[in-house]
Design goal:
By secondary structure, the chain is an alpha/beta fold. It has three domains: 51 residues, no CATH class; 328 residues, Metal-dependent hydrolases (TIM Barrel); 47 residues. The chain has 18 helices and nine strands. The strands form two sheets. Strands 1, 2, 3, 4, 5 and 6 form a six-stranded parallel β-sheet that branches. A three-stranded parallel β-sheet has the order 7-8-9. The longest helix has 31 residues. The chain binds zinc ion (ZN). Zinc ion binds next to loops.
């Protein structure tokens, strides 16, 4: 819920609305239809933004922490300043963002015991960092494991931290590892990242390895269904997607994906996939990464400078760089970004994708997954402190308060609850 500057600005409006309709409007999860037409659009947006549960399903903070160990997530950082990243607890509060899924991301390397073990160690380290947040900042934040946790924490004025794992690589070849990570708090697994792994094919590898899921990947989907973990199909190859849709007993999510009709890249979802998600009862969380939203001509000098780093980048992904070399590579990226800043699409460009997805799938199957700290960010949506801009844009386009509640987390929490219910059914049937 509200805090700081935002609360001070919207408090008069909250009080005015409460005088008419009472507290339940501010706290209700199901917003009754509110006629706010007498209030300015910007103030109405702030009021709605504070009233609904707002969840971002993809924040890549741990990878930032791994390259910048001095970063303190409990301190507010300046938007856009060097080293600020795009997420911290203070900006999360000022942006009225109630909950996030922190991405436990590991880069894809060799499919060997050694590679699996290294990824497993890194994933556990990232989970440790994330679980340290409520230890260090107990008044601000808590770990959430269920939708109920998120709604309860919102009432308490605390930020909810969910764990999502991006890339099933750390599972190795061990099906027990799914339960181990579940027990540590992980509530979704993005089956692959940018390369094929032992679970299945990725949308962005050079060639396919499995023609969909691997046999082990099939077992993992069953195990996730049994445990009540959300199966995340962002990043997977189209064949893997359809394989999952045929196999899963529960609705699936795309934690950060956009619409291929508007931007034709393999990371986005075509209309048939969107319709399949609608039928499956799942949700697609709009990804706010520029290149997935709109193709924009960049300064050719930027392109040349970035191309010069591609060998080093490939070496980093293979795990062939020392820590010092990684730091040097990141410095070079930062220098390029300062000298030739990337021209990014606007939030309106991104909401065009959302409009399209709603037109194809309906309002009950969309949400927001920014990919902040993992490449996300738009010219007028630079970090989590600017999340109210999304609500303002949605309101300006005619979405109702109830639509906005669904988009901002209602749909994702509904899917999450269904996944939990189905897991309980599977476990009950197994016992009888
Ligand atoms: Zn990603």
């Amino acid at each position: 819920m509200a805090s700081g500057v935002l609360l001070r600005r919207v408090l008069p409006f909250i009080l005015a609305v409460m005088a008419t309709w009472g507290w339940q409007i501010v706290y209700a999860h199901d917003l009754p239809p509110i006629d706010l037409s007498s209030t300015l659009t910007s103030s109405r947006a702030e009021l709605i933004h504070q009233a609904v549960l707002t969840i971002d399903s993809h924040i890549d903070w741990p990878i930032r922490q791994s390259v910048n160990p001095e970063f303190d997530p409990g301190v507010g950082h300046e938007t856009g300043a060097s080293g600020s990243g795009q997420w911290d607890l203070v900006r999360m509060a000022s942006g009225g963002l109630d909950g996030v899924f922190i991405s436990i991301f590991t880069p894809q390397r060799q499919l060997t015991e050694e590679g699996y073990a290294e990824a497993n160690t890194l994933a556990n380290q990232m989970i440790d960092w994330t679980k340290q947040l409520p230890v260090d900042y107990p008044d601000q934040v808590a770990i959430a494991l269920t939708p109920e946790d998120a709604y309860r924490l919102e009432q308490q004025g605390k930020r909810a931290i969910f764990l999502g794992m991006e890339n099933g690589y750390p599972l190795g070849a061990d099906i027990q590892a799914v339960q181990t990570f579940y027990d540590r708090g992980v509530r979704y697994i993005t089956l692959t990242h940018s390369k094929n792994n032992q679970l299945g094919d990725s949308s962005t590898d050079d060639q396919q390895l499995w023609q969909g899921l691997s046999p082990f990947g099939e077992t993992v989907v069953h195990e996730m269904n049994r445990l009540g973990m959300m199966v995340d199909i962002s990043h997977v190859h189209d064949d893997t997607f359809w394989h999952v849709i045929r196999l899963t007993q529960a609705p699936v999510i795309a934690s950060h994906s956009s619409a291929r009709t508007l931007r034709d890249v393999p990371r986005n979802m075509d209309d048939n996939m969107l319709r399949a998600i609608q039928e499956n009862g799942g949700v697609v969380q709009l990804c706010l990464l520029g290149d997935y939203i709109k193709e924009i001509d960049q300064d050719p000098r930027r392109e040349t400078a970035l191309a010069a780093l591609s060998d080093q980048q490939a070496a980093w992904l293979r795990g062939d760089l020392s820590e010092a070399e990684v730091a040097e590579l990141l410095n070079q990226y930062r220098a390029i970004n300062t000298q030739y800043p990337e021209i990014k699409p606007t939030l309106a460009d991104a909401i065009d994708h959302l409009d399209h997805m709603v037109a194809v799938m309906g309002i009950d199957h969309v949400g927001i997954g920014s990919d902040f700290d993992g490449g996300g960010g738009l010219s007028d949506l630079k970090d989590v402190s600017q999340m109210p801009n999304i609500t303002q844009e949605l309101l300006a386009r005619g979405y109702t308060p109830d639509d906005i509640r669904k988009i901002w987390g209602g749909n994702l929490m509904r899917v999450f609850n269904q996944v939990i219910d189905i897991a309980e059914q599977i476990q009950t049937e197994a016992e009888s």
